[in-house]
Amino acid sequence: MPGRDAADPGGAQGDVTPRFVPYAPAAGPRVADAEVLARAQAFRRQLETRRSVRHFSDAPVARAVIEELVRAAASAPSGAHKQPWTFVVVGDPALKRRIRAAAEHEERLSYGGRMSEEWLRDLAPLGTTWEKPFLEVAPWLVVLFKQEHALHPDGSTGKHYYVNESVGIAAGFFIAAVHAAGLVTLTHTPSPMGFLAELLGRPRNEKAFLLLPVGHPAPGAEVPDLRRKPLAEVSAVHE
Length: 239
Ligand SMILES: Cc1cc2nc3c(=O)[nH]c(=O)nc-3n(C[C@H](O)[C@H](O)[C@H](O)COP(=O)(O)O)c2cc1C
Description:
alpha+beta; NADH Oxidase; 4-stranded antiparallel beta sheet; two-stranded antiparallel sheet; 8 helices; 37% helix; disordered N terminus; binds flavin mononucleotide
């Protein structure tokens, strides 16, 4: 059982007394070994069918769905539980149009010479260009901002820890939640992404992390034919 060391009655942690509640996983009591493997396989198989999709249908998706996806993402772990993220959800067609125009402006510069030749060669199998029609077609754009530090209502600031790691994990949860719901998204980074904070009027402690269009795939949507590295190439085991 965790507890406080009587010889250290606070120190840098002050007089905060941690509070604990029982860990109550949805599954109930300990899961049998065979069932653990079956669940791991089922989840892996489901995740393996996820793809980044760049052709969206304009079919509507209820705001309640997007809110569930954001709730799922916001359940991610974070450094010192600071939850240093903001998910800005955009469905307004005029705002989507402005985001598309600004993103395409940056992408045109990137594809037109700002990216290295090696980078462009690495992108070639994906068939991407500076054009991003999906930013207008997808019913929702979710812009994930990282909070580099806390900004309290009185204007004072506070520290956030492992911000990139934390927000990256939340992004992963979000992408997995989109997939589990039967929708698609694209992890998009039309960099530099400063225009997003500006267009969306974000406070000065927030920096755009990812732009994630969310919706149904367009009928007949295609994705690049990619191979994933096998287990032996992505892992090492010391048993
Ligand atoms: C951090 C990050 C940034 C990405 N940025 C872009 C992007 O700006 N445009 C794009 O079309 N795809 C982008 N992608 C998507 C990758 O190209 C894609 O994940 C990769 O090709 C593997 O394909 P899959 O997601 O279908 O497995 C990005 C992915 C990540 C993780």
